[in-house]
Amino acid sequence: MDLVRSATAAGVTTVTLDSPANRNALSTPLMTQLLDALGAALTDSAVRVVVLSHTGPVFCSGADLKETAEAREAGRVPAEKLADVLAALWEFPKPVVARVGGPARAGGLGLIAAADIAVCAREATFAFTEVRLGVIPAVISATVLPRLTPRAATELYLTGNVFDGTRAAEVGLVTAAVPAEGLDAAVAGYCTALVQGGPLALAGTKQLLRRTPEASIRAELAGLAERSGGYFRSAEGREGVTAFREKRPAAWVPDQQ
Asked: Family, per the entry (predicted)?
């Protein structure tokens, strides 16, 4: 059964969670198919951006609790598989945009936080429900805590309270919260901007955003200057500068038709 679907157009692959009957819960089959879809997008040079979307009214309800109950005594629970998914999203060298049209809970918030850009409907709701189940939001903390403000993380983790899209944007979980009818246009706008960037430059910028700074400012600047020079001297950098001077799209910009 296909629980994840992929479609590509104009350099953008939309990876869709398609298990609405169980609110796109993070079952092992769904996560396995999601990893496969990401792997295919990674190796396809035509893919410049990945959009993570969903069918049905719910983005993702978190771990598949039915499977978790069955697997608890038998082996690896789905929450452990989620670590593989979050690592794949966080380390993905191409930009990832999360399109969140409905509620997300627990592990689903880990997916959203792992994306580079996340856009939600203002009406969407969110909650870290783990403590109310007697468990903790351990795995998702790797992607969530770098996004949230410390006070908000403390409040939302400990209370499990529901919050809306506007609050999600205020505390850093999502990039933007927009009216539901404008969600697709907002996502498309980000994708249009992202495909203008050079593929290697985008991957390098993602590394830059997640690097560990050097201990001293001089070492920091020396390393960054060397890195910058390498990109300016690269074939991609030379093409980008030439295209700018010639007032034309760079060679890597896909046809939008």
From this structure: Belongs to the enoyl-CoA hydratase/isomerase family.
DSSP code string of the chain? ---EEEEEETTEEEEEE--GGGTT-B-HHHHHHHHHHHHHHHH-TT--EEEEEESSS-SB--B-HHHHHHHTTTS--HHHHHHHHHHHHHH-SS-EEEEE-S-EETHHHHHHHHSSEEEEETT-EEE--GGGGT---TTTHHHHTTTS-HHHHHHHHHH---EEHHHHHHHTSSSEEE-GGGHHHHHHHHHHHHTTS-HHHHHHHHHHHTPPPPSSHHHHHHHHHHHHHHHHHSHHHHHHHHHHHTTS--TTSPP--
Q: pTM of the prediction?
A: 0.95
